[in-house]
Design a protein that fits this description.
The complex is a heterodimer.
Chain A: H1 3-9, H2 16-33, H3 68-72, E1 78-79, E2 82-83
Chain B: H1 8-17, H2 22-40, E1 43-46, H3 50-59, E2 71-75, H4 102-109, E3 113-118, H5 152-159, E4 165-170, H6 176-182, E5 185-188, E6 208-213, H7 216-226, E7 254-258, H8 268-283, E8 287-291, H9 299-314, H10 337-348, H11 351-364, H12 370-390, E9 396-400, H13 416-420, H14 427-432, E10 436-443, E11 449-456, H15 461-475
Parallel strand pairs in B: 2-3, 2-4, 7-8, 7-9
Antiparallel strand pairs in B: 1-3, 4-6, 5-6, 5-10, 9-11, 10-11
Helix pairs in contact in B: 2-3, 5-6, 9-11, 9-12
Classes of the chains: A mainly alpha, B alpha/beta.
Chain lengths: 90, 485
């Protein structure tokens, strides 16, 4: 498994030591899960949700008001009504 | 009569009649939480508003409040406005939601008092409660043993009578397995019965909330309050919600023993107890048959591939921008946006969560998607169809919940695969979307609880509950109390 690629795709970073441990664990797990490849699933539709979704949409009317200040107050850092992050471009 | 020995139904009735006040009941359970939590670590937060909320209930007309003054502990997956909701993760350790989950809202509207938030595995990813950022919960029956997971804090706190009722979530067995390890009743209803709005998302096509209680009737009451269509969750069903707590009458059922689940891996003590239960069921007039369900040997593999894939997608929201933990970049700024995200996420998520995100990302990545995610989704359909065929022949299915009783703290922590295969009898139910419960039926020679898994057909929770209610009275496990309390 190309763990560097997986780390990049999942926005995670691992130390060399973590990478070594994780690689061994993940290879073992993937090898065990390889069993599912043995099932003949030709013409089987994948099941993505177990119960039929009714698909009824509610009226497009506001149900409640979100208080912007309240929602902004839980952010790590804000500047007025903007989310603030460290400088990421030089 | 000590208040903690009362069921939720009895507490609500006595409060309604004026024999007890909500404040007095809340005080009683709060004190128990304060005394017992240092021993069990079953709670992450004890609410500071519980007494105030109880006083409000005491002043209200309680006639239409089914849970009037009943103290409830919520797994820390349910958003509670103004009360910390952490999912037992560092990344949400200080998160105070600005809104209530639908489950929280419905419990409050029914007169319930939110006493606190239960410990669990981080993001509900685990079967032992040991992946919690706040440390493992201990099993009240033996403090060296795990309570199970992921709703381990919920099951342990109910077993220790810190509240008569807790609400957990079950993605691959997270209500049934800890209920089984702690000697309490827990039921996961059919997928779509209870709204997932405001529940921290793990694997959205599996996640389902459900009650954990000492008594079957209490869970039945909680279910009838919590089930129902929610415009805020499009996967909820508009089917009528039966009066579960009033329909617990005995009915003769056709019961199927899942043949492949009664194998040599089951501990003999569990097998003996289940055989004793079967004899009692036959004496009650139920009929029993053995039943074969295909592809169940692949349930764990299929479940983990799909659940990890969904988790890797769901957990991408934790970016350190809008809420939750952010790495400390002072004096060490990120060189680009990617690094800003990855440092925050790598510091904020625990080992098991990162393992699952990595595996899920792998299973969804180009070149592997067809072999893993898509193949697993197809096997999922085959498993669901096998269950559907079986459930045309019987009303409910029974099996052990796990192969052994609770294991020791630390025993499986370094072997993720062994931990995953602990869920060998529970994950198949979530793949199919069916309702299922774990009912305590006794104890092994070490004094650790043994449970029985009862699986029903889609939206047939009533049959599971009436069956469990019948058997509960045969074994009366609710009379037993762990020494720690």
């Amino acid at each position: 498994m190309d763990l560097k690629k997986i780390a990049r795709l999942s926005r995670l970073s691992f130390s060399e030591e973590e990478e070594l441990k994780l690689n061994a664990q993940l290879s073992k797990i993937v090898m065990a899960f390889d069993r599912i490849k043995s099932v003949n699933t030709q013409d089987v539709e994948p099941l993505v949700t177990p119960v039929k979704i009714e698909g009824k949409l509610r009226q497009d009317q506001p149900q409640f008001e979100i208080n912007t200040d309240e929602y902004m107050s839980i952010a790590p850092e804000v500047s007025g009504r903007l989310y603030k992050v460290p400088r990421v471009i030089s | 009569m000590e208040i903690y020995k009362l069921s939720a139904v009895e507490i609500a009735n006595r409060i309604k009649k004026g024999e007890l006040s909500a404040e007095e009941v809340t005080q009683h359970f709060l004190k128990r939480c304060q005394v017992l939590n240092p021993k069990l670590n079953a709670l992450i937060t004890i609410s500071e508003n519980a007494i105030e909320e109880a006083k409000k209930i005491d002043k209200k007309d309680k006639s239409s409040l089914p849970l009037a003054g009943v103290p409830i502990l919520l797994k820390d997956m349910f958003c509670t406005k103004g009360i910390k909701t952490t999912a037992a993760s560092k990344i949400l350790k200080d998160f105070i939601p600005p809104y209530d989950s639908t489950v929280t809202k419905k419990l409050k509207e029914a007169g319930g008092i939110i006493l606190g938030k239960c410990n669990q595995d981080e993001f509900a990813m685990g079967s032992s409660n040991e992946t919690s950022f706040f440390g493992a919960t201990k099993n009240p029956w033996n403090l060296n043993y795990v309570p199970g997971g992921s709703s381990g804090g919920s099951a342990a706190s109910v077993a220790a009578r810190m509240a008569p009722l807790s609400i957990g979530t079950d993605t691959g067995g997270s209500i049934r397995q800890p209920a089984n390890f702690c000697g309490v009743f827990g039921i996961k209803p059919t997928y779509g019965r209870i709204s997932r709005y405001g529940i921290v998302a793990f694997a959205s096509s599996f996640d389902q909330a459900g009650p954990i209680s000492m008594r079957v009737q209490d869970s039945a009451l909680a279910l009838e309050i919590l089930c129902g269509k929610d415009p805020l969750d499009s996967t909820t069903t508009s089917l009528t919600v039966p009066s579960f707590s009033k329909n617990l009458t005995h009915r003769k059922l056709r019961i199927g023993k899942i043949k492949s689940f009664f194998n040599e891996k089951i501990s003999p003590e569990i097998m003996d107890k289940i055989n004793e239960a079967i004899k009692k069921l036959e004496a009650q007039g139920h009929s029993l048959v053995e039943i074969e369900i295909e592809h169940l040997e692949l349930a764990v593999d299929t479940y983990y591939l799909l659940a990890m894939s969904e988790a890797s997608s769901n957990l991408s929201r934790y970016d350190g921008v809008r809420y939750g933990y952010r790495a400390d970049f002072r004096g060490n700024p990120p060189s680009n946006l990617e690094e800003f995200y990855s440092r925050t996420r790598s510091e904020g998520f625990g080992e098991e969560v990162k393992r699952r995100i990595a595996l899920g990302t792998y299973s969804l990545s180009s070149g592997y998607y067809e072999a893993y995610y898509l193949q697993a989704a197809k096997v999922r359909r085959l498993i669901q169809e096998s269950f559907q065929r079986a459930l045309t022949q019987v009303d409910v299915l029974i099996s052990p919940v796990t192969t052994t009783t609770a294991f020791q703290l630390g025993e499986k922590l370094d072997d993720p695969l062994a931990m995953y295969f602990n869920d060998v009898f529970t994950t198949c139910v979530n793949l199919a979307g069916l309702p299922a419960a774990s009912l305590p039926i006794g104890f092994d020679s070490k004094g650790l609880p043994i449970g029985l898994q009862i699986i029903g057909d889609f939206f047939q929770e009533e049959k599971i509950l009436s069956f469990a209610h019948d058997l509960e009275e045969e074994f009366k496990c609710y009379m037993e109390e762990p020494d720690v309390i």
